[in-house]
Amino acid sequence: MGAFVGKPIKRREDARFLKGAGKYTDDLKLHGMTQLAFVRSPFAHAKILSVDTSKALQAKGVVAVYTAADGCGEFGVPCGWQVDFKNGETMREPVHPLLAKDKIRHVGEAVAAVVAETLEEARDAAELVEVDYDPLPAVTDPEKAMSKDAPLVHDQWEDNAAFDWCIGNDRAEVEAALAGAHHVTEMEFRNQRLAPNAIEPRSYISDYDVNADKWTLYTSTQNPHLIRLLLCAFVLGIPEHKVRVVSHDVGGGFGSKIYHYTEEALVTWISREIGRPVKWTADRSEAFLTDAHGRDHMVRAKMGFDKEGKILGILSDEYCAMGAYLSTFAPAVPTYLHGTLFQGVYTTPLIHLNVTAPFTHTVPVDAYRGAGRPEATYLLERIISKGAQEMGIDAAEIRFKNFIPPFDGVNQEGYQTQVALQYDSGNYEATLKRGLEMLGYEDFRKEQEKARNNGNGKLLGVGISTYIEGCGIAPSAVVGALGARAGLYEVGQVRVQPTGKVSVYTGAHSHGQGHETVFAQFVADALGIPMDDVEIEHGDTEQVAFGMGTYGSRSLAVGGSAIIKSIEKILEKGAKIAAHKLEASEADLEYADGKWTVKGTDKSISFGDVSLTAYVPHDYPEGLEPGLDFSSFYDPTNFTYPFGTHIAVVEVDKETGKVDLKRFVACDDVGNVMNPMIVDGQIHGGIAQGVGQALLEEVIYDDQGQMISGSYMDYALPRADDLPMIETDRTVTPCPHNPLGVKGAGEAGAIGSTPAVVNAVVDALSHLGVTDIQMPLTPQRVWKAMQN
Amino acid sequence: MIPSKFDYIKASSVDQAIELLDQHGWEAKILAGGHSLIPAMKLRLNNPSILIDISGIGELNSITEQGDEIHIGANCTHKAIANSDLVQKHLGLLADAANTIGDIQIRNRGTLGGSLAHADPSADYPAVVLACDATIEVQGKNGVRSVAATDFFQGTFTTALEGDEIITSIRFPKVSQGNYQKFYQSASRFAVVGVAVVKDGNDVRVGVTGVSDAPYRATAVEEAYTGNADAAEHAVDGVEVMSDHFADSDYRAHLARVFVRRALEA
Ligand SMILES: Cc1cc2nc3c(=O)[nH]c(=O)nc-3n(C[C@H](O)[C@H](O)[C@H](O)COP(=O)(O)OP(=O)(O)OC[C@H]3O[C@@H](n4cnc5c(N)ncnc54)[C@H](O)[C@@H]3O)c2cc1C
Q1: Taking CB atoms and an 8 Å limit, are B187 and A780 in contact across chains?
Q2: Nearest chain A CA: its distance from B250 CA (Å)
Q3: Is residue B256 in some structural domain?
Q4: CATH fold of A489-634, please?
Q5: B186–A127: do the CB atoms touch at under 8 Å?
Q6: Cβ of A26 under 8 Å from any chain B Cβ?
Q7: CA of B114 to the centre of ligand 1 (A)
Q8: CA of A287: which chain B residue's CA is closest?
C-alpha cells in the first residue's frame, strides 16, 4: 500500500461543490443563447390531428417553433443493444422521433419545441401552441400489454412484444427438478417502477459555430463520447470530428444520464437551424415524465428445495416493461444484466429465466442503479428467505447451506455459473458471518421474541440479503456477442508535463462518485509522487481521446486499469531515459518513491528530472522519441463480481403498519479499496436508494396512462430521518483479473439492501402468517397484510 | 416551473389590500408566505395576473393575550407560532401542529392565515382550529365579520371567505388540555390523518384533518365520549373518507380511529 491508496482522503471536488461553485450545464450562459421549452402531450396514447403554431410564432421573444413536420421530423434516437426474439425474429425497434409525428405514445412526449429569447417567453409561447389530439386507450402494465386485447403501442406489429428471451438450463429440466422437489416456494410480485431523481435535472446546450461549421454540445451526461457517437453517426448524420461534447459537473445520474435523449439531439439540430446557442433544462415535472425509469418487472417464480433446504432449481417468468420506445441500454437490462445474475451466491444446479419485454404507453425504462441486478437479487434473496420461512429453517442457515464455497480466482478457478458468466473470486460465507456478528444475531432473536410478547404494539424483524452483482462492464467481445452495439473498454491517457506534473485524461466520467480524488490517489502512488501533482480530467471529448463513460460500477475497474496501463508505459520509457542519464543499464534500475535508483547504490534520478529530459531531449537515448505521454485502451477480460451481506432490523407499528428501520448492517466486498470513505459513501447512498425502493418509492400510472406520482408530493424519496446510522464493514477478496484488484462499489448498496428490508418486515410479521408484501411496503400495504 | 406573467403590489395596510382586491377582482390573489400559492403558480395551476403581498402588513403579525383568548395575526409564520411563549403556554397543540408542518424553510415563510385560506384538506392547522373552537376574523369591503371555525371550511380549497375578504386574525380560546397527533404522508409529509383533541372537563372537542374533502369536528366521537377512548370508533361516522395511493378509504378510516384514540388517550 502506498502513501494514498487505502486512505480516507477527503474529496477534492467537494471544495467547489460545497461552495456552490460547481459548473453544471444549466450554470452556463453563452453569448446570444436562446431557451427552449417543449409542448408535451397530456395523453398517454393519442393521434395527433393537428398542431397549430401560428399564435406561438407571433408571441413576444419567440425565435422559432418546430414540430415533426419541420426538418427534425425525420430523425430518431437509436437503441444501443439488440436482443432478438427466441424464434430468431429480429428485435422490434421503433423509430424514437425527436418530436412526435402522428401519434403520442406516452404522457410527456414532446410535440413541439418553442425557442425564445428567454425561458419565460418560451414557456408562455409554448402555451399558445394548439394541438388537437384524438385520445386512445393506453396500456401501462407490462403483463396487460401482452394480453390479446391490449392497445398497440406501435401499430406495425401484431402485439406489443419488443422481444422475448430466455437463459439458463433447459426449461423442462428445471420444471422436472421442481416437480420432484421436497418443497417449492412460489412468488408473484411487481418489481415496481422507479424514477431516477438525480438532483440535477437533465440539461443540454448546443452551440453551433457557423464559421467553423462546428458544434459544442454541453450536456449532463454520464458518457460524453458515447453521446457524440450516437448523435453524429446514428441520429443527425453529422461528422463526428465536427462535434465537441462537454459534460462538466453532473449532479447524479444513477443510470438515467447514460442514454442519448431526444432533447439532446434536438437542441443540436436547432442550434444549426437558428445559428445561435440553445439551452434546454428539464424542470422536475419534466424529469418525472421523461427521464428513463427503472425496474418495472412483473415476476412469477418458483424455487425448489430438498429436505435439508438445498436449492434444487429456480424458474422465473417475467414481463419487463420497455416503455414506449427502446432507450439506449433498455434491452440489456432485463436480459444480460439480469438473467446472468440468477446464480446468486448459491450452488443452484438448475436455472431458467424467461423474459417477455413489451412496449407500454409509458416513458422508456432503462438501467437504474444496479440495472437488472437489483431485480435478480430481489427475487433470489426474497424467495430463499420465503423458502426458509415456509420450511422452518433459519434465514442465515439456509444461506450457509447453499453458498458457493470460497475461491480466489488465482489458486482456485473462477466459478462457472449456469447462466453464462464465470465469477472472478468470492468468499460469500465470510460476509454473512461478519454481518451476523456485527448485528448480534442470536441476541436479536431473543429480543424479537420478547417484543412479540410484551404487547407494546411494536413488532421487530430482521432481514438478511447475501447479494452478488456483476460490474466492471465489460469485455467487448462478450457483450458484442450478446447484442451490444458498442465496445465497453475504457481509455486512459497519462500526460507527464515537462515539470513532472501529471495530467490524466479518463474516458470514465464522474457525476458525484469522486474520480478526481480516487484516481489521483492511485496514480500518485503508482508514480510515487504527491497527489497534488496529479490532476484528473474528464468529461470533454476534445480533451479526452475516447471513452465509454461511467455506469455499471466500471470506472475504477475498467477506467482505472486503462490508466495503469499508461503508467506502465510511462515508467518503461522513463526507465530508458533514467538509464541513459545514470549511465546504467535499465535492468539495474529500480523505481520507488518517485525516482529511479541504480540498485545497491545511491545514484538516482527523480521522476521530475526524467520528465524534463523527455521534453528537453538534449542528452537523450538514441532513437527514443521525446515526450512522456501515453494513452491506453483497456478491455477487461471478465466482469467483476462484488458481493456482500446486508442485514436490516425493522420495527413495525401494529396499529398503523408503519415500518421504522432501526438498524442497517452492511458487510460488503468490493475487492481492493482505494478510498474507504468514498466506498462507504457509495454504499450509504446505495442503501438509501435501496431502502427507498423497499419502503417508499413507486411510479404509478393510472389506467389512462396518467402519471399520478409525478411530483414530490406523491413520489416518496427516502430522507435522512427515514434511515438509521448505517453500520458498514468489509471483507477484501481482490479481483484477480485487473491490475488494481478492484471490483466496483457504485451499485452494491442499492442491490443488496432492498430485499434485506423487505425480508425484515416479513420476518416481523411472520408469526401472523405473512409471507410476502408488495413493494413499496407502505404503511397501508403492511397494515393490510396484517389484517389478512 | 416558471409562472405566467403577473404584477406585484406590496400592500402596506389591510384597507389597502382589500381595496386592491376589490379593484382587481378574481384576477388578483393575496400573497402571504407563498408556500402554497407560488408552487401552484409555477405549475401554472393558478395564474393570477396580480399578486397583492400582505406579508409586510405589521398589524397582521402579532400574537397577543386577550382575557381568555389568544389572538394570532394571519401573517404569523408557522415558526413564530411554534416558538411563541403564549402559544406554547395556552395552545400547546397549536405549537405542536405548527412544528409538524413541512421543513424549516416552509415554517419560516408559511403563515397561519395562508394555510387556513388555502384550505388544503390535508393541512394541519384546520384540525386544531376546529378542536379549539376558534374564530376566524375576516375583513372585506363591507367591513369585518367573525366566522366560527365550524362554518369556515367548506371543502377542498374552499372556505367561507368572500372574494374581497382577507383573514386578519384567529381568536383561540385558551386550552388547558389538548394535543395534536399526525400520521405523515410519506412523500409530502402533510397529514394523511391529523387529529386535534381539546378536553374541557368531561367535554371533548375533536378536529380531524386529512380524512375527508374538508376538515371536520368528529361530533359522533364527542357525543360518545365519557372519558373513555373507545369513542374513537366513531371517528368517521357520517364522513365520506378520501382515498389515494397512500391510503384508501378503509385504511384512512382505520387510521382516523387509531389517531383519535391516541389523541384521546394522550
Ligand atoms: C414543501 C411543502 C411542505 C408543506 N408541508 C405542509 C404540512 O406538512 N402541513 C401543512 O399544513 N402545510 C404544509 N405546507 C403548506 C404550508 O403550510 C403553506 O405555507 C400554507 O399552506 C400556506 O400559507 P402561506 O402563508 O404560504 O400562503 P400563500 O401560499 O401565500 O397563500 C395561500 C392561499 O391563501 C391565500 N391567502 C394567504 N393569506 C391570506 C389571508 N390572510 N387572507 C385571505 N387569503 C389569504 C392566498 O391568496 C392563496 O390563495 C407545505 C408547503 C410546502 C411548499
Answers
A1: no
A2: 10
A3: yes
A4: Aldehyde Oxidoreductase; domain 4 (3.30.365)
A5: no
A6: no
A7: 4
A8: B1
Q: Is residue B132 part of a domain?
A: yes
Nearest CA in chain A to B258: A655
Which residues are near ligand 1 (CB < 6 Å)? B 29-37, 39, 54, 74, 101-102, 106, 110-111, 113-115, 117-118, 120, 123-125, 161, 166-167, 189-190
Mean pLDDT value across residues A230-237: 96
Task: Tell me the pLDDT tens digit for each residue of A622-644.
Answer: 999 999 999 999 999 999 999 99
Residues 6+ apart with CB under 8 A from A184: A178, A302, A303, A304, A305
pLDDT for residue A1 is more than 70: no
Does B253 fall in a domain?
Answer: yes
Name the CATH topology of A297-473+638-787: Aldehyde Oxidoreductase; domain 4 (3.30.365)
Question: With an 8 Å Cβ cutoff, is A449 touching chain B?
Answer: no
pLDDT tens-digit profile of B42-51?
999 999 999 9
For the domain A25-136+200-252+257-290, what is the CATH code?
Answer: 3.90.1170.50
Spatial CB neighbours of A218, under 8 Å, sequence gap ≥ 6? A25, A28, A203, A204, A205, A206, A207, A246, A247, A248
Give dist(CA B185, CA A58) in Å, integer: 45
Average pLDDT, chain B: 96
The interface predicted TM-score of the complex, written ipTM, equals 0.96
- Give the three cell numbers for residue B37: 400559492
pTM of the model: 0.97
Place of cell 416513458: A363
Query: Which residues of chain B have a CB within 8 Å of the CB of A716?
Result: 186-187
Rounded CA gap, A253 and A28, in Å?
19
Mean pLDDT of A419-438: 97
Asked whether the beta carbons of residue A119 and residue B245 sit closer than 8 angstroms, the reply is: no
Q: Which three cell numbers stand for residue A138?
A: 393506453
